[in-house]
Design brief:
This protein has 154 residues and is mainly alpha-helical. It contains 6 helices and 2 strands; from the N terminus they run E-E-H-H-H-H-H-H. It has one domain (34-153). Helix 2 (66-87) crosses helix 3 (89-95) and helix 2 (66-87) crosses helix 5.
Length: 154
């Protein structure tokens, strides 16, 4: 290695006798023992802010490239849309070419609920509330959902 670290050591780590000397974190001195709780809380807040920017329409946190965050946000939304279409293909059939536009409107500012099936059900309910899912398709979506539920139970 060119940085003088022994083989098997990460870059920036030097052996001092039998102990490893880790480099100080960026920005100066290592954290004090009493500030560990504060550091964890600050990290959790920063992660929540980044997650909100990626999936819930939150503001892009300071220090991040807005263009890259927006690209990643679009990629995650497309992945979410594909998963919902895979779990409940009847929605894609019912909506046709309007599916991507309507799903984008539904998902904007609304974080995923945790399970794809739940997301698909919420999307179908959102469509019904707005009158954008014709009744003949709404009944098919409900029938398929009950059929799947029945198969899982038996």
């Amino acid at each position: 290695m060119s940085d003088g670290a022994p083989i098997g050591e990460p870059p920036g780590v030097e052996s001092v006798g039998h102990r490893r000397a880790w480099p100080a974190p960026r920005g100066g001195e290592p954290p004090r023992a009493g500030s560990l709780k504060e550091a964890r809380a600050a990290l959790a807040a920063a992660q929540a802010e980044l997650l909100a920017a990626l999936v819930a329409g939150g503001a892009v946190p300071e220090g991040f490239d807005r263009t890259r965050i927006e690209a990643q946000t679009q990629s995650l939304a497309a992945k979410r849309r594909r998963l919902v279409a895979r779990v409940m293909p009847e929605l894609g059939t019912a909506l046709g070419a309007e599916f991507p536009r309507l799903f984008a409107a539904y998902a904007e500012g609304r974080p995923p609920p945790g399970r794809v099936r739940t997301d698909a059900e919420h999307f179908a309910a959102w469509l019904r509330e707005r009158g954008q899912l014709p009744e003949e398709h709404a009944s098919v979506v409900r029938q398929v959902w009950w059929r799947r539920l029945w198969r899982r139970a038996s």
